[in-house]
Amino acid sequence: MESTNITRITNPILPLDVFVPDAEAHVWLEAGGRIYLYGSFDLPGEKKYCSDVYHVYSSDDLIHWTDHGVSFSLAMTKDGWAKDLGALYAPDCAYRDGKYYLYYCVPDGRCGVAVSDSPAGPFEDVGPMEHVHGIDPAVLIDDDGQAWFYWGQFDAVRAAKLKDNMLEIDPETATRPLSVAEHEFHEGSSVKKIGGKYYYLYTDTHRHGGRATSLGYAVSDFPDRGFRYGGVVIDNFGCDPSTWNNHGSLCEFRGQWYVFYHRSTHGDVFSRHVCAEPVFFEDDGSIREVKMTSGEFAGGETIPACRSAELGGHVRIACDEASAYGCALTEIQNADRALYRSFRFDGETSFALTARTDKPCRAEIYLGGQYAGCVKLAPSAAFTEVRTALERPAYGLAEVELRFFGEDFTAAADALCFFR
Question: How many CB atoms lie within 10 A of CB 405?
Fold first, then answer.
């Protein structure tokens, strides 16, 4: 049975100029039941994974988010042990006995732990963890209070018990919970206990010739072994021409489960936006695969063009100083397309696109896969709104697709809107 508590999320969920991949989401009852996001922190346009700082974001509705500022950085590592390593990779956080424990990793494969009285930090570093080598740490605290630690890539993935101090693993308990051969495990461990079963979400390479764009899952009766492959939860293939990886988590918020994941931008594998989708469990405990969405928008609402769910061709989302939103669809060329899921229509009869182009071109509008109109764009150095009539009034919930055509042009799009 599907929940009636679904929040209509707008993707990306954070401001458009904020790039947080690898999001691990937690609801801390001790912090008033707010949901907190822990992730890496990309710098837009940078040609590398992650910066050297973390920010924590929190919300009480999945719509309005508070940036709590820098929660941890390489400069804050104890005695500067990692200050020159260049980046902080995917983190996780756990709570025990009034303390929040931040688990982080760095490019040389070491993982560390830092502690705070607040879920938002700042976190005070304890230092690197012994017997742990590999990226993407994750933590599960089981019903009996036992904390489990997960880390590593490929067949070097490991699970082990955390000692009561939450700072060390018990190396004698280490196992390999997943494998490349059986699960096509790539990286990005995240484990939750749901309905008495252990759900292991991870970066899955089953699709697209081994590309790591999917979040797959496996299920077990045990936290450290016996995981059976369940399938793909979400695939970010199509969010950007060069998207390569995905990493995220499952989290329950106000009775509804969500998958948090990221989408690449800027025509590269970096500059990743955090997004979220509601997920649903079948009666047998399997998770129904969901598609990337933009959000549910209404007619008359102006939508940033960069909120597209899928792209095709050369077009990509990138920062643009001339954009009203800081980001736009850029480098649009002939036969490129942008898909939006979804719009709720109530008799809208016209459409507007705010765009610029160096040569004449046109943007065709498709509603639910059916041709609905065409906007003709004249050369303009600035973003300019152009309106056109739809072939028929639009009603109900439908995907919107823009398809661009012309000869030897390069364009950018900033916003779209439907009108009655």
Answer: 14
